[in-house]
């Protein structure tokens, strides 16, 4: 990050590739024969970290043009270098050494990009400052040579020759699907991505994403692999299924780390990494630890202890988050830029409380126990029946887990059609996604007592995102049909087919009159749920929506 961050994050070490030992590897060793320093070969600045890593930065455009670790070149495929977006073009590139740090600075229009090396480390610390939208820079991609880390993971398409959607979703001959979008993980779930093979680990340790968008539950592509080579990403802004506007400013550091095959050191992880050594380097937009503040909460009452709670801070310039302690809801979020933020408490991924909090440089904003009103959690309402849980995600629904790393057409997916009977494993039987052209018109069967059938009831359908304005219209027993609801604000890109159900949570409510119910208590009532929209195309790209929970209130 820009400066140091002491906020807690989930310390999960996910290796997205061929299995590498998950553990703590020390910062790569101190030099023995090599000498820390830099040189100019006419085309590139050549940096020797004094350990086992030598890298080059192209003087004309700031590309990372070589990455040699223990004498082996890892950088590049298809004649392309590693760089911001698809490369910046003609740039002003400079280099200087300050004691045990070497900084390469790249200026392209309003964008500033930096590579830093520390003596005796096999790491490259990278920062990117996108000041405005005049420059297209939404990612850094580390390109790796073919044949070094081949794999057959969900985000690989090495063995998936058939294109089934756009130019980035593929099907293997066995019917399994592959795409660089299928990372499985939310941003809060991982600290690094990469591969390990032959006693070498190549990783990108993510930044704290304070200048990214989408919050802690956001999903985006993290890496890809094919016969042509591989790519590791640090996403600066990703437009797919995005819920927030782009943020600008300095993002980083994200760290290119090479190891002896083990995981990168936890001292590089967001939340533990400190960069006081960078305070005096003069990077544009850099704010050190002394210019940042902290938010701490005594606890959170009114929680449902069956769920994990997350506290997030967000404004137009920055975002942060931390986990609430399961015992009492205590939380602490450090390394926060000064400003006023919306603080949101999430039950699972469902927002159940918001407030405003101000942060000052060098200060700690301490909050008394946050009380979540019972009415803020829809799961507290008494229901005659309920499908799923009100947690902001389609967890537990049919195919829900698979959809974070596969296309809906994947051979492993259970049938998207089929009716549901309350009392007969209804959540696992109900599909996590509904589409106008695939499974619209799903039927839910349920019985009511005489007293329940004599009264009107509220039906609720919670959704987590929608594609092409897909939204539910319902009918009961063919006797009553709801109006077509207005579409809520949702992302306008693909979502359900590229591994993400995360959009804007919304609850549709329907007032069902007593006249709609069966009067014979021995008969099933039949709820029909259709997906309506005038947008979308066909199949899995027809209008659709992801389900959080469905219930009929008492």
From TrEMBL:
GO cellular component assignments: extracellular region
Main location: secreted
Protein name: rhamnogalacturonan endolyase
Highest rank taxon of the organism: Bacteria
Subcellular location field: Secreted
Organism encoding this protein: Streptomyces regalis
GO molecular function, one term: carbohydrate binding
GO biological process, one term: pectin catabolic process
